[in-house]
Amino acid sequence: MYNFFGRLGCNHRNSCKLLELGGGTASTTKCILDSIKKCDVERYYFTDISDFFVNHARELFSNIRFVDYLKINIDDNFAKNKIKENSIDILVAIGVLNNAQNIENTLKNIRKVLKNDGQAIIVEAIDESVQMLISQAFMMVDTNDERAENNETFLKLGQWYELFRKVGFTVKKSLPTIDSELCVYNQKVFILNCKSEVECDENK
């Protein structure tokens, strides 16, 4: 998925700003930073709710001048944590939103900080995902959105699409496609645009 950054046009933007939510052990961060070496990056915000993970990343990437480190709770307004509205070009959230108390509210906060031509890369479970449940069960919080109403752990694909539409996103692309063997894992990569565009065909 990290080849997406070239396709998203990060290397064609002037002073690109990226925000990663819930960076954790920084395994995703390492891959992203490696793939954007030749991009004109003004700032990469590594964030997590844990002081331990934030400090770990600070040590790990201490030689990269454009990386900043912030402690962010995805249930809060990001502006409280020095992320200005309409300031981020690309936002990354890998297996993070399912840990929000209310996913719609977190998506609204994401939309606020993204520029009008900004994009978000989100990886989430669609329906029940044993792999994600095993790896993240200890981080999950009590929810107050439709997951609680329906006694669900993860949203289904149609629910994700409805939330994206409601908040003001369109799905530029989602992977894997329905004919892929990877569908068995019940996880999706969503590339979201803030612009009003026709949603992608799931068969493509």
Summary keywords:
204 residues; alpha/beta; 7-stranded mixed beta sheet; 7 strands
Describe this structure in words.
There is one protein chain. The protein has a 7-stranded mixed sheet, with helices on both faces. Helix 4 (103-113) links the parallel strand 4 (88-94) and strand 5. The protein is 28% helix and 25% strand. It is α/β, with parallel strands linked by helices and 204 residues long. The protein is built from 7 helices and 7 strands; from the N terminus they run H-E-H-E-H-E-E-H-E-H-H-H-E-E.
Give the helix tally: 7
The average pLDDT value, as a whole number, equals: 85
How much beta, percentage-wise? Answer: 25-35%
Count of DSSP strands: 7
**Biggest pleated-sheet summary:** 7 strands, mixed
Structural class: alpha/beta
Low-confidence residue ranges: none
How would the global form be characterised? Answer: globular
Describe the strand arrangement of the main beta sheet, using strand numbers: 3-2-1-4-5-7-6
Radius of gyration: 16 Å
| End-to-end gap | 16 Å
Order of helices and strands: HEHEHEEHEHHHEE
Helix content: 25-40%
